[in-house]
From TrEMBL:
It comes from the Bacteria. This is Probable 2-(5''-triphosphoribosyl)-3'-dephosphocoenzyme-A synthase. It catalyses: 3'-dephospho-CoA + ATP = 2'-(5''-triphospho-alpha-D-ribosyl)-3'-dephospho-CoA + adenine. It is an enzyme of class 2 (transferase). Its EC number is 2.4.2.52. Belongs to the CitG/MdcB family. GO terms for biological process: prosthetic group biosynthetic process. InterPro entries: CitG, TriPribosyl-deP-CoA_syn_CitG. The keyword GTP-binding does not apply. The lineage of its organism: Bacteria, Pseudomonadati, Pseudomonadota, Gammaproteobacteria, Enterobacterales. The keyword Transmembrane helix does not apply.
Length: 280
């Protein structure tokens, strides 16, 4: 699987969404330099992760992405509002496979959530004979997760997780909010500007676009709102002034020094790569 192209999605006519999801995880991981994040050069702001650990994690996750697709197809006749509950056992099993492969390190929990939903949505659409495109996939995920933020963040009795705490304290909805919006940030700020021919530079440009606007709960968890605003402003500045690889390496050093890792934007970059492989 590591031999798949790092930047150019497979042709839309293939539309094997689980395979594309695995390729998207590798494309995100191998992109270098990638400020604050694990890449081929270093471990970013992480002391408990490296490139090899991420490869082991992806290998553990990969079979489950097919399971999400199959579950979506099997339950195509069920109401969309039932899908989250029906997918949860597979999601928990996939997370456990990740933790087993990484010795308990959370390398891809956000990626499992987002890409798992996209794979399930693809299975549902295919089983119903409906068109498979970036738009239909995102809208199906949005319908499947409708009300999730209210149920799991707004109306919860206590802030048991970091995501719940950040919602209570800062109003950040994290991966749940992105899914419920149908990945609106990706559709508005990345896909219209996607240029696969630009190779890694195009992916880095997409990552900067995400970092500039994404209310990343990974950043807020590590550095508070000040850390989040710092990274958003830094990325916006590079986009406005222009940048090269030296500028990205300098940003990498700055984020490492502040222990900031834009992991939420990394997850959305993988989502972007997958969606770019489908018709818009």
């Amino acid at each position: 699987m590591t031999g798949l192209p790092a930047t150019d999605p497979r042709p839309a006519r293939v539309a094997d969404v689980p395979l594309l999801a695995v390729a998207a995880l590798y494309a995100e991981l191998n992109l270098t330099p990638k400020p604050g994040l694990v890449d081929r050069a270093n471990s970013g702001a992480h002391r408990d992760m490296d490139h090899a650990l991420f490869v082991a994690s992806i290998n553990a996750i990969a079979p489950w992405l097919r399971v999400f697709y199959q579950q979506g197809a099997q339950d195509a006749g069920q109401p969309e509002r039932e899908m989250l509950r029906r997918l949860r056992p597979a999601g928990l099993a996939c997370e456990q496979a990740m933790f087993s492969a990484t010795g308990g390190v959370n390398t891809h929990k956000g990626g499992i959530f987002s890409l798992g939903l996209l794979c399930a949505a693809a299975g549902r659409l295919s089983a119903k004979g409906e068109p498979l495109s970036a738009t239909t996939l995102c809208m199906t995920v949005s319908s499947m997760t409708r009300g999730m933020v209210a149920r799991e963040l707004a109306h919860g009795r206590r802030a048991a997780t970091a995501g719940e705490r950040l919602y209570r304290e800062c109003g950040l909805t994290g991966a749940r909010g992105e899914a419920e919006s149908g990945f609106a940030i990706v559709r508005r700020h990345v896909l219209p500007f996607w240029r696969p021919a630009q190779g890694e530079r195009g992916l880095q440009q997409a990552l900067l676009r995400l970092m500039a606007v994404n209310p990343d709960t990974n950043l807020a968890s590590r550095g508070g709102l000040a850390g989040l605003r710092y990274v958003q402003a830094y990325a916006s500045g590079l986009l406005a002034r222009g940048w090269d690889e030296d500028a990205l390496r300098e940003m990498d050093r700055a984020l490492i020094a502040r222990n900031l890792s834009p992991g939420g934007s990394a997850d959305l970059l993988a989502v972007s790569w997958l969606l770019a492989a489908l018709p818009s």
